Amino acid sequence: MDNGSQQESSDLHVHHLPIVSVIGVEDHTEEADDAAVDYHDDGSEGQDEVSNKRMKRHTDDQIKHLESVFERCTYLGGNQRVELAKKLGMEERQVKFWFQNRRTRKKVATWVDKRFIIIQGGIAILNMMHDERQEGMWLQEENDVLHAENKVLKEAIWANICFTCGSPVVPAIPTVHHRYLSFQNMRLADELQHATAVFNMVAQDADVGLPPVFPLTDVSPLPQFGFVTGNNQTSLVIDPPSPSHSENQVSTEFANSTSTCPRLFILSGRT
DNA sequence: TTGTGTTTTATTGCCTCC
DNA sequence: GGAGGCAATAAAACACAA
């Protein structure tokens, strides 16, 4: 603050008179006299030199007393200020300035505390979000595992692989197939043998010069197997149908042939 | 010792209230 | 219009690292 502005201020606001302009004319106590000595301990120094030292830190006792009063009341009335200033040996304006600055510090401190609390709350929320996210990640991992397991089970079902023991259950079907084929082959072989014998006998008796007939080696295509689900039951279907086996018979035979795998038996029985 | 950042005291300008 | 509050700021005092 330059002296020019101070002078202007002194002209406009009487209550803003510089401290050095009033110190020495007040009725100081002993402490106030000490403070005044501090202000003027330059002795014969000029007014400009004194102005350069117009700021003097209050003593610890003064600050302690001011703090104790401030704790009880942050604003002082005129009489209170005068009495406190007298008691502490301070200028009334000094007390006023001190309370004003103290209120400002308290306001800033309160603002900082509030911000700190807000930040703490934010940190707590972030921690909660982190925990929830961690839990979500665990659930996601568990979900992935379950999905993978589900996929394996589905593939096992569709591939006819026992997901309990890992052994293929598909070979159980060829067993039925083989039984069916064996039966067919035996029947066809008998028919063919019989027909060949009859044909050759007839041809020989008639002596028509036809070449002898040899048994056919061509066989019918392998039947296709499939599952049909419905009515809470899964049935084995053979295409083309076996001329000598009903679906129930084949299904029962299939179930019996795979009965070594209890879980598959249950799956094939009910859905 | 000195430069630099922080704290404390004091000032200024503007505002509201009585 | 005077008294006093507040925000912004100046300046002195202080703390501390290099």
Structure explained in plain terms:
- With 271 residues, the chain is mainly alpha-helical.
- Among the domains are: 60-142, Homeodomain-like (Arc Repressor Mutant, subunit A, Orthogonal Bundle), CATH 1.10.10.60; 173-205.
- It contains nine helices and two strands, in the order αααααααββαα.
- The chain has helices at residues 3-12, 30-40, 47-51, 60-72, 78-88, 92-158, 172-206, 247-257, 262-269, and strands spanning 224-230, 233-239.
- Strands 1-2 form a two-stranded antiparallel sheet.
- Strand 1 and strand 2 (233-239) form a beta hairpin.
- The structure holds a DNA duplex (18 and 18 nucleotides).
CATH fold field value of the domain at 60-142: Arc Repressor Mutant, subunit A
Please give the count of helices: 9
Range of helix content: 55-70%
CATH superfamily of the domain at 60-142: Homeodomain-like
What integer value in Å does the Rg equal? Answer: 56 Å
Shape type: rod-shaped
* Main sheet characteristics: 2 strands, antiparallel
Sequence of secondary-structure elements: HHHHHHHEEHH
Low-confidence stretches: 1-53, 215-271
What percent strand? 5-15%
> Helices and strands: which structural class?
mainly alpha
Our measurement of the CA-to-CA distance between the termini, rounded to an integer number of angstroms, reads 94 Å
Q: Report the top-level CATH class of the domain at 60-142.
A: Mainly Alpha
Q: Which sequence of strands runs across the widest sheet? A: 1-2
Question: Which second-level CATH architecture of the domain at 60-142 applies?
Answer: Orthogonal Bundle
GO molecular function, one term: DNA binding
Domain Homeobox: 49-109
Subcellular location: Nucleus
Pfam family, one: Homeodomain
